[in-house]
Amino acid sequence: MDAQTVEQVKSIFGNRATTDDFERSFYERDLAPIPDFLVKPLAHTLPDIVVRPQTTEEVACLVKLAKEQKVAVTTRAGGSTVYFNAVCTQNGIILDINGVNGLTAVDAENRVVRVGAGMTWWELERRLEPFGLATCSYPSSAQAATIGGWLVMMGYGIGSLQYGPVMDQVVAAQVVLPDGSNKKLDKTSKPPLTWFAASEGTLGIVMEVELKVRSKPETEWHNVAVFENAGQMQTFIEEAVELKNKPFNLHFSDPGCNSRRQRLGLAGSQSGEAYTVAFDADGSAEETQTARLAFKRCLQAAKGGELGETEGNQEWRHRFYSLVLKREGPSLLGAEICLPILKLADYLAAVAAFGDKQKLKINSYGHIISPQYAMIMTMFNADERDTVGYLQGLALVKKLHDIGARHGGVPYGIGLWNTPYLSRCQTNQELAELKRRKQLLDPHNIMNPGKRYEAPLLLKPPLFAVGMDVLAATRWVYRGGRNQP
C-alpha cells in the first residue's frame, strides 16, 4: 500500500485510522498462538493501516478506494477463531467494525430486530431483554463473537438444535460489496444473502443484519445426564434429538474433559470420570415440565443416571467458559469438527486409542447443532514456547482431522489453516461454484484474499500431509518437556 493511499485514508478517518506499529501488531493474530516462523512464509499479517469506521457509507468509501488502488481489505471484529479468518495475508487495510454495533430497530410484534454487525451476541441478548425478547441461538463464544462474524462463518452453536444455523434466522443484511456498492440483500436478491453465509469475509462486508428473535422464555430447566460409556451417551443424544419439542441445547463432555472441568471448579465430583450431556430446556412452564419428562424417558432408554438440577444450573452458567480449560496448558491445540451423531461414540473411541498410542491426554466436548450433527472440539495441552513440541502438536491436530474424516466429519471453518482440508469440506463442483462467486463479485481479489478457496503452496494437501506425518513421527525421538499434560 503506497504512502499516498495511506495518507488519503488518514485524511478521511482522522484518529480512527492508525499506522502505529504497536496498535497494528495486535491485528497480526487471532486466538491461535502460531509461531512467526510458520506464519511468515505463508502470509504478510501486519496490516499497512487499521481503520475503525462507524457507518456503512464510510466503509463503502474505503472499499471504493481499495478497489481503485487494488489494496487488500480484511474485515475484523471479535477475532474469536483460530484459523486466521480475520487476519490479513497480504498486508493492506484491516477494517475493524467493532464500532458498528447499534441496535437500530426493534419490531417486538413480529420479533425482528436490526442490529450493527459489530455487536456481540451477548450484548444483543442483554439489549433485547427490556423488550421481552431473546436471540434464537448464539455461539459458545457469544461474549466476543459478533453478529456479522458469526453469519459469515455459517454460525452453529447454542440453540441451533431448535432453531437451525444463524442463516435460518437472518431476514436481510446491508452489505458493502467489493466494488464499493452498498446493497440490502436477502434470500431472493442478486446476489442472494445465502452466498455470504460461510464466505468468511471474502465476498463483502456485512454491516447491518435484520434478524429473527424470539419471546424471552418464561422458564428454564437444566439437568445433566451421566453415563459410563460413550455408547450410552450417544443413545441418549439420539433419543433427545428426536423429541417433538427439542431441547434448546445439548452439550456433551468426555471423562477427560470433565476431569479438567472438575479440577477448575466448573463441574461437580460425580462427573469426573463419566460421559455427560447437559440438557437445557426453556419456554413456558408447560414446555419445561414436558422437557423434564422427556429427559427421564431419554435417560431410561440410554440406561444412564442424572446429576440433578443444581449441577445442570451450574453447567449452564459456565456455558461460555469451555476454553478456560487452557488454564492447565499454558495453551491448547485441537480440531473442531462437524461430525454425524451416529458416529460420535466410534469417533471418541478412535481418539482415545490414538491418545493412548501417542501417550497424550486428549479431551473432547461439543454441542449438538442439528438432529444429525454434533460440533465437537477435541484438544490437548500444548506450549508454543517449546518450538519442536508445538510443531509436533500441530502435526497431531492433522491426525485428529484424519480421524474425524474417517468417521464422516469435516472441519468447521476454513480461513487459512484449514485450507489443506478443502476437498473434505466441498466437492470439486461445490468448490468451483464458490470460486465462480468470488470471481463474479471480487474479480480483483481484494476482499480478504488468501483464504477459503485454495491452499497456499506450503499447505497444499500432498506437501502438507508429508510434512505433518514426518513431524508426528518425530515424537518417538523427542517429546519435549512443556507440552505434556
Write up this protein:
The protein is α+β, with helices and mostly antiparallel strands. The protein has helices at 3-13, 21-25, 36-39, 56-69, 121-128, 147-152, 160-163, 230-241, 255-263, 285-302, 309-317, 344-358, 387-406, 422-425, 428-441, 461-473; strands at residues 17-18, 49-51, 73-76, 93-96, 103-107, 112-116, 133-135, 170-176, 182-185, 205-215, 219-227, 249-253, 275-283, 305-306, 331-340, 363-368, 373-382, 410-411. An eight-stranded antiparallel beta sheet has the order 14-11-13-12-16-17-15-18, with helices on both faces. Strands 5, 6, 7, 8, 9 and 10 form a six-stranded antiparallel beta sheet that branches. Strand 8 (170-176) and strand 9 (182-185) form a beta hairpin. Helix 8 packs antiparallel against helix 12 (344-358).
Helix and strand arrangement:
Elements (H helix, E strand, L loop, with lengths): L2 H11 L3 E2 L2 H5 L10 H4 L9 E3 L4 H14 L3 E4 L16 E4 L6 E5 L4 E5 L4 H8 L4 E3 L11 H6 L7 H4 L6 E7 L5 E4 L19 E11 L3 E9 L2 H12 L7 E5 L1 H9 L11 E9 L1 H18 L2 E2 L2 H9 L13 E10 L3 H15 L4 E6 L4 E10 L4 H20 L3 E2 L10 H4 L2 H14 L19 H13 L12
Parallel strand pairs: 2-4, 3-4
Antiparallel strand pairs: 1-2, 5-6, 6-10, 7-10, 8-9, 8-10, 11-13, 11-14, 12-13, 12-16, 15-17, 15-18, 16-17
Helix pairs in contact: 8-10, 8-12, 13-16
